[in-house]
Write a structure and sequence with these properties.
The complex is a heterodimer of chains A (391) and B (160).
Chain A lengths: L3 H4 L2 H5 L6 H9 L4 E2 L11 H12 L12 H15 L9 E4 L1 H13 L5 E6 L5 H8 L2 E6 L10 H6 L5 E6 L12 H13 L3 E5 L25 E6 L12 E4 L2 H15 L4 H13 L1 H25 L11 E2 L10 H12 L1 E2 L1 E2 L11 E4 L4 H19 L1
Parallel strand pairs in A: 1-10, 3-4, 3-5, 5-6, 6-7
Antiparallel strand pairs in A: 2-8, 7-8, 9-12, 11-12
Helix pairs in contact in A: 4-11, 5-11, 6-7, 6-10, 12-14, 13-14
Chain B lengths: L2 H8 L5 H8 L3 H13 L20 E9 L8 H8 L4 E6 L6 E7 L2 H12 L5 E8 L5 E2 L2 E2 L15
The chains are: A alpha/beta (391), B alpha+beta (160).
Chain lengths: 391, 160
């Protein structure tokens, strides 16, 4: 008999599976659930983008791409970062095309963090940073951001968590699950601390196109002195509704990108070819698609946030991504109790806030990547549920 | 396009409160705006889009192409007003192309519709010819999908 326990890598075994598995199992098995739990666009990839993918297949362009990604795609990516975020990168040495933003996050953390290092992770946040850090042998250090600060990372909070072993800071803004954004002045304050303590930064800007209101996303690499100590992660999934194509990219200093490219090369060779052809079209001619989708998200955002406020749940105004993060502490229930009750009695699925870190306890993540009609129905049911548990 | 009209044309059941949140406009402004659209006839009415095939004793619909000789002074308008006065006529359009009017007619049976065409429409003086097409299956109407397959299901996975 094989003793799997002794065979398996102990570092991997130590990574905890998601604590809210139980909740997802229930949500996935129940029929006729009205879900507000999905974290990807409900829009289809714009037709002209899909068409370029199809054309490339028709012409039989089905080979590997270069390890770093096609040169013209890398050029379009650098043009885009210059145009949109005012940061210049060299397409030959400072860009890596990856399998979604996720792969970029993985290779970046693996290239930087090692045993003895500490990696700072502001939570609530997307779920992958902590386990990837653990698998490198480095220590994740959680910074709990607060609703009273609009879930932004403050320079003081950052300073308080720095030790001589701190190496890398993860900056996950615009934020999943809170919808928080960091403004230029916030980033400038963070940059001073980063410089003073000689830190490196992974800025996950996958929701960079999805901000609402007059102020747009500012790339951390644009802040003075930060480009040389930042790897920017971005991709096509959220901005162009291209989740299933699995395409993202990393931008950063050449020596770091060189090591990341090595890992990428040996782990997965190259990103999907068809997706790269489609992505070139998206970057060239997709600006108006983004604007249209953003307009729809913004209408939904106002409906959802306004409705929660009307129901008497405190909900800070999210200015990015497509989530809102209302506080349910007033109900006296835990996040999981609230979500289980809601799905059992009203068949509405939302994600318990503690799925995104302990400090998400007392909150729920509500995705508004759904039609207005769907949102309206779900919100009505949530209101009924709230009235019942109050009553 | 006017966002308010677009939203109402997609779903006229949004409450003023919901519209106010979605469009970020005050409720009284939107109420005034809707009233103005109604008064000016921009908004003609509100109705449910019904899939009659799901109701027993469902109706038969036909599209009838009509060729006419336009009248000297009134052109097509006088003829149109005669045709649209029949309650069997659901919609009426003046068309460019090989025929002049497209008329949508509903009746209980095909016989009903055929009788209506031969007795009422063909007998109008200016009508030169008619051609009746019966509607077999409705896939989409007023922007609403009537075709029920699994393509409408949310196929997205819960990935975290």
């Amino acid at each position: 008999m094989v003793d799997y326990e002794s065979i398996l890598n102990s570092r991997i075994k130590q990574v905890k599976p998601s604590g809210i598995r139980r909740f997802f199992d229930i949500a996935n098995e129940m029929d006729h659930v009205i879900s507000l739990s999905i974290g990807e666009p409900d829009f289809k990839t714009p037709w002209h983008v899909r068409e370029e993918g199809i054309k490339s297949l028709e012409k039989g362009k089905t080979w590997y791409s270069p390890n770093r990604g096609f040169a013209n795609l890398r050029r379009e990516i650098t043009n885009y970062y210059k145009r949109r975020f005012n940061v210049e990168y060299n397409p030959d040495s400072e860009v890596l095309v990856t399998v979604g933003g996720s792969e970029g996050i993985d290779v970046c953390i693996r290239c930087l963090a090692q045993q003895g290092d500490e990696v700072l992770i502001p939570q609530p946040c997307f779920v992958c940073y902590e386990p990837i850090t653990q698998m490198t042998g480095a220590t994740p250090v959680i910074i709990q951001t607060k609703e009273e600060n609009d879930f932004r990372l403050t320079a003081q909070e950052l300073e308080e968590h720095i030790t001589p072993r701190t190496k890398l800071l993860i900056l996950p803004y615009p934020n999943n699950p809170t919808g928080a954004v960091m403004r230029r002045s916030d980033l400038e304050e963070i940059a001073q601390v980063v410089k003073r303590h000689n830190l490196f930064v992974l800025s996950d800007e996958i929701y960079g196109e999805l901000t609402y209101g007059a102020e747009r996303h500012v790339s951390f690499a644009e802040i003075e002195g930060m480009k040389e100590r930042t790897v920017v992660i971005n991709g096509f999934s959220k901005a162009y509704a291209m989740t299933g194509w699995r395409l993202g990219y990393a931008l950063g200093p050449a020596p770091v990108l060189e090591q990341m490219t090595k890992l990428h090369q040996f782990a997965i060779m190259s990103a999907p070819t068809t997706a790269q052809y489609a992505a070139i079209e998206a970057l060239k001619n997709g600006d108006s698609d983004i604007e249209n989708m953003k307009k729809q998200y913004d209408m939904r955002r106002r409906l959802v946030v306004g409705s929660f406020q009307k129901m008497g749940l405190s909900c800070f105004e999210p200015n990015g991504a497509f989530y809102c993060f209302p506080c349910i502490k007033s109900t006296g229930l835990s996040s999981e109790e609230f979500c289980l009750g809601l799905i059992n009695s009203k068949h509405v699925a939302v994600v318990p806030g503690n799925a995104f870190g302990e400090c998400g306890e007392g909150y729920i993540r509500v995705s508004y990547s759904y039609s207005l009609d769907h949102l309206g129905e779900a919100l009505n049911r949530i209101e009924e549920y709230l009235n019942e548990i109050k009553g | 396009m006017d966002e308010l009209l677009k939203l109402l044309s997609e779903n006229s059941k949004f409450t003023i409160e919901e519209l106010s949140m979605i469009l970020d406009e005050p409720q009284d402004y939107l109420e005034k705006q809707i009233k103005e659209y109604e008064d000016k006839g921009v908004i003609k009415g509100y109705q449910a889009i019904v899939d009659w095939e799901k109701i027993s004793g469902s109706k038969v619909t036909a599209m009838i192409e009509i060729k006419v000789t336009p009248e000297k002074d009134t052109g097509f308008d006088e003829i149109a007003s005669k045709i649209m006065s029949f309650e069997e006529v659901e919609s009426l359009y003046l068309m460019a192309g090989t025929y002049d009017f497209a008329v949508y007619v509903t009746g209980k049976t095909m016989q009903d519709v055929a009788m209506f065409v031969s007795r009422r429409l063909s007998t109008i003086e200016s009508v030169l010819s008619t051609s009746t097409h019966f509607l077999l299956k409705k896939y989409k109407e007023s922007g609403i999908d009537f075709y029920e397959d699994d393509s409408k299901e949310d196929k997205r996975s819960l990935v975290l």
